[in-house]
Each structure stands twice: as structure tokens, then as C-alpha cells.
């Protein structure tokens, strides 16, 4: 994808996420790899509903700002995913309501936030790790992601929101949408003993689609 097309795609996906109420106000951020190894990033303080493709932050491969507005203060979080997951082409972070709700419930499993309720949550998202609360922009968030050594493509920041890395922008957005919908399902069925996928069914998805459902 050309840089121009990638700029347009970031703004288009961001507007769609905002229009559906998946991240309010000026919350949330997106980054995506450019062909030369740099990044396009949503600017700090920007709202997903009105991004300007020309004002996206353009970083070089070393993380230096080349053009556009200053990038999101959550860059340590994004950088950690790119450093630990070689195939990552995009990272999406939202403040979506159902995921945040799961992050603050004491009974949520910190090693596997989302129960395996649907095939697509296993295939597109995999196991989601709950990370502790960090002040927004705290570099320690990046350290927490690095401590996972690339074993998870998605994490949930306590009292904050989910972060997903994907092979490209579309994959990262689709995985994020699946994460939020599964969080919604988990909340809707909490206390009702829902029937999730069993170990054999999960193993079949891992074999067939390369789903990440290991440690």
C-alpha cells in the first residue's frame, strides 16, 4: 500500500471506529508501518472522528518525527509491539467500553481476559493478557509489553483499554473489533454458565488457522 493510501485508510478506519462509539472523544490511537520501515501514527490529542491524512505523524525507522503533528503519547506502547512481534504491521489502541469493563472486574482472569466463546475470537485475537494500570503515556507500559516477549498479539490495560497488533492495518482493526464484541458477549453472559469452545475445538482452530492460543 502506498503511503498516501495508508494515510487515507488510517483515517477511514478511525472514523468508522469513532462513529460506532468504540473510542470516545480524543481517546485511542493507531500506528501502521510504511514501506520504508517507518510509521504513520495518529497525533496526540486527536479525535478519531476528524483526522486529517496530511497531519498524521510520520516517523522514520528510528522513531524520529519527520512530518505532521506530534505523535500519540502512547508511542512506547506501540514501539514495544513492533520490537517484540516481527510480523506486526499495525497497532490499534482503543478505550472501548466493554473491554475496559472487563479490565476492572476482580473475577477477570489476568492471563486470559476473554473466554473462548467464538471461533473468531480465538482465530483473530487469541489469548489476551491483562496488564496492570499505568498512567497514560507511561513508558512502563512498553516494558510490560516487552516482558511478554511477543507471545501475545493483544493486551488489555487495566482501567484503560485494549491494544492489538496485526500483520497490517485491516487485520489489527478487525481483531480489535472482535476483541470488543467478545468482551461484550462475556459481560452479557456473565453468571449464566455460557458454553464456550472446548480444548479440542480450540486445538483445531490452532492447527487450521494458526491461531495463537498457547502460553
For this entry, give a set of tags.
215 residues; alpha+beta; 8-stranded mixed sheet; 8 strands; 36% helix; 14% strand; globular
Structural notes for this entry:
The chain has 215 residues and is α+β, with helices and mostly antiparallel strands. Helices cover 36% and strands 14% of the residues. It is built from seven helices and eight strands. The protein has an eight-stranded mixed β-sheet, sandwiched between helices. Strand 3 (57-59) and strand 4 (65-67) form a beta hairpin. It is globular, with a radius of gyration of 17 Å. The relative contact order is 0.16. The mean pLDDT is 96.
Structural class: alpha+beta
| Helix percentage | 25-40%
* Main β-sheet, spatial strand arrangement: 4-3-2-1-5-8-7-6
Would you report the number of β strands? 8
What order do the helices and strands follow? HEEEEHEHHEHEEHH
Q: Uncertain spans, ≥5 residues at pLDDT below 50?
A: none
Net shape: globular
Provide the β-strand percentage band. Answer: 5-15%
Q: Average the pLDDT over all residues and give the rounded result.
A: 96
Q: What is the C-alpha radius of gyration, as a whole number of Å?
A: 17 Å
Number of helices: 7
What's the story with the biggest beta sheet?
Answer: 8 strands, mixed
**What's the end-to-end separation, in Å?**
33 Å
Amino acid at each position: 500500500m502506498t503511503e498516501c493510501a495508508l494515510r487515507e485508510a488510517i483515517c477511514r478506519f478511525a472514523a468508522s471506529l469513532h462513529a460506532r462509539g468504540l473510542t470516545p472523544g480524543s481517546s485511542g490511537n493507531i500506528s501502521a508501518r510504511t514501506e520504508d520501515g517507518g510509521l504513520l501514527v495518529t497525533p496526540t490529542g486527536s479525535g478519531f472522528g476528524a483526522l486529517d491524512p496530511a497531519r498524521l505523524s510520520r516517523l522514520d525507522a528510528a522513531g524520529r518525527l519527520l512530518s505532521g503533528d506530534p505523535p500519540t503519547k502512547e508511542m512506547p506502547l506501540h514501539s514495544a509491539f513492533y520490537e517484540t512481534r516481527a510480523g506486526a504491521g499495525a497497532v490499534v489502541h482503543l478505550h472501548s467500553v466493554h473491554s475496559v469493563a472487563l479490565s476492572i472486574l476482580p473475577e477477570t482472569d489476568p492471563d486470559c481476559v476473554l473466554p473462548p466463546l467464538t471461533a473468531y475470537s480465538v482465530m483473530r485475537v487469541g489469548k489476551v493478557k491483562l496488564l496492570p494500570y499505568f498512567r497514560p503515556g507511561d513508558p512502563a507500559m512498553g516494558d510490560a509489553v516487552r516482558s511478554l516477549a511477543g507471545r501475545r498479539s493483544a493486551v488489555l490495560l487495566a482501567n484503560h483499554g485494549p491494544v492489538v497488533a496485526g500483520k497490517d492495518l485491516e487485520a489489527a482493526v478487525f481483531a480489535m473489533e472482535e476483541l470488543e464484541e467478545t468482551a461484550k458477549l462475556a459481560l452479557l453472559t456473565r453468571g449464566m454458565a455460557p458454553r464456550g469452545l472446548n480444548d479440542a475445538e480450540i486445538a483445531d482452530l490452532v492447527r487450521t488457522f494458526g491461531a495463537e492460543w498457547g502460553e
